[in-house]
Amino acid sequence: MSTYLDFPKPWLFLAPMDGVADWAFREVCYRFGADITVSELVSVGGVINCPQRVLPEIGARHGARPFIVQLVGHRPEEFRRAARIVTDSLPVVGIDINMGCPTALVVGSGNGSALLRNPALAAEIVAATCAGTHLPVSVKLRSGWDRPNLPEWAPLLEAAGAQLLSVHGRTREQQFGGTADHEVIAAVKRVVHIPVVGNGDIVSSATARAMLETTSVDGLMVGRGAKGNPWLFAELQAELKSSDSYRQQSISFGDVIREQSRLTFADQGPRKAPMAIRKHLAGYSRNSPSAAVLRAALKTLFSWDDVEGWIAKLEASFGQTPPKMDAPDRLGFGNRVGLGGFDER
Ligand SMILES: Cc1cc2nc3c(=O)[nH]c(=O)nc-3n(C[C@H](O)[C@H](O)[C@H](O)COP(=O)(O)O)c2cc1C
What we know:
11 strands; Four Helix Bundle (Hemerythrin (Met), subunit A); binds flavin mononucleotide; alpha/beta; TIM Barrel; 14 helices; 8-stranded parallel barrel; two-stranded antiparallel sheet; 2 domains
């Protein structure tokens, strides 16, 4: 049976980002060329105990686009049960296990990157998850807890049934400091026979290419680099996969932001949407000559009209000069950027 693992490489993943990579942002990233997206982390306990509330919140509404649900927890049996529920209830192509989240709250419960300190339990969780689903099970990891020792035990995860490993090249102790270590990702790739996805600090086609060349990974996972710059996927599709279709149609910079805002309001409703969209608007405004003023005004956005007015100010702040984003000049669209169809799904 064919799975997302049969897609042409290098796979371009949007990284799971709690509070950022929500349904609306995932939709925008797909439309710019993300091959696969991953849900925000979802607790296995939540899936088991409150499926009626938790399953719809995951937002597995991406039509035919490949979407993976990421589970977080530390009890193997709960992973088995949650994987079964998700597989039976949602149109997803895979189950991912969070072994990277560094926050005190998550680690304090023995979840996320706490599992990096217990390879035997990590492997047991993989085996239990595989027992609950026929879909490919992947694991998202950091390079280690306080030293980059993942290459020493990554084969245990493969032996337990994992079909893909995504590696963020930082230890838990590093949090987000320093730069992502490509050598440890390359070392993981050398010791397993399953695909490996490289993650950390990919912000351009140059950094993506460097990750591919230094690590020989099968796919790339982009997180913060896509925030305020979903065009990055169009650039990566063109530069790494010779696929120009994502930048052939054009939509203005402001219209992309309006569309993401509209999708956010449609998905989250008028009460939650303003908070959810603010952090994205901050990203979109970072190259504006009025970035500081616009950023300060974000906390005054409470309604759709407020958001629309703010976007108009952002557009006006650029005057006749095209917004200077990280990629579009190189895309050659001036302030028009490519988009493979903003159709409703
Ligand atoms: C705001 C935020 C939320 C995140 N939430 C998750 C998450 O839910 N699950 C996960 O595995 N990683 C999460 N991450 C980590 C990212 O997936 C990624 O590994 C990390 O940001 C490094 O990649 P980047 O340099 O491309 O951002 C989060 C990162 C950020 C910045």
